[in-house]
Amino acid sequence: MGPFVARGCRAGAEMITLALSKGRIFDDSLPLLRAAGIEVLEDPETSRKLILATTRPGVRVVLVRATDVPTYVQYGGADLGVAGHDILLEHGGQGLYQPLDLRIARCRLSVAVRADFDYAAAVRQGSRIRVATKYTHCAREHFADKGVHVDLIKLYGSMELAPLTGLADAIVDLVSTGNTLKANHLVEVEHIMPISARLVVNQAALKLKREPLRALIDAFESATAANNP
Ligand code: AMP
Fold first, then answer.
1. Ligand 1 atom closest to Cα of 195?
2. Which of 67, 107, 159 to mutate to test the pocket of ligand 1 (most atoms within 8 A of CB)?
3. Cα–ligand 1 centroid distance for 21 (angstroms)
4. Could you tell me the CATH number of the domain that includes residue 20?
5. Model pLDDT for residues 56-72, shown as the tens digit of each residue
6. Domain count for the chain
7. For atom 19 of ligand 1, which residue has the closest CA?
8. Distance (Å, whole) CA 17 – CA 43
9. What global pTM score does this model have?
10. What is the DSSP letter of 82?
11. In Å, how far are 21, 24, 179, 215 from 224, measured between CA atoms?
């Protein structure tokens, strides 16, 4: 198949489509968009629309699930998007140009266990541990690098529940303040990597819509620099 570029119904050739996910990514992207001179004209929390107009002519926002942002951009459903590094690592990043760490939605990918589980001893003794996670790719690599034998259990949410119900010994999940772990009597035993959101761009669009996309990427870059002096 040839290159995939966003077309969109009745959108002009130079229409730029930006994929965002609701919640943290959307909220943290708004100040960057604003600094780039773009206001989103509707609030996704109150509107049910999935395509949102902006004050910048020729730029629109589409709302997709966080895990779908790389797929939309890869296949040209959007020209660019904002995706967590965690999501990109799991997706693999094929067909995506990743020009910029936006340094928003920052957190870390960590291993956590029940407070009464002796993780260090389990690892030292070479026991096989059961790990529940949405991030199977990152988890597999992490434990393989450490030479720890793991059985991975794929979950799609509420990972904190897995050690509490005996489904798993450990979880690999995103941690920000640590409050969710604490509320569920779990402790962080390893930091795997810091995570933040990145700008991803469709490689074919970057050639075919070079000017407007470059202008947007540059605007994001200046806004990110201004946010992180
Ligand atoms: P916290 O209680 O602040 O440590 O947040 C942990 C919860 O929020 C977990 O359910 C995580 O999966 C989720 N979380 C934390 N940071 C992020 C992020 N940057 N992006 C998406 N989910 C996150």
1. 19
2. 107
3. 14
4. 3.40.190.10
5. 989 999 999 999 999 99
6. 2
7. 105
8. 17
9. 0.93
10. E
11. 19, 16, 27, 14
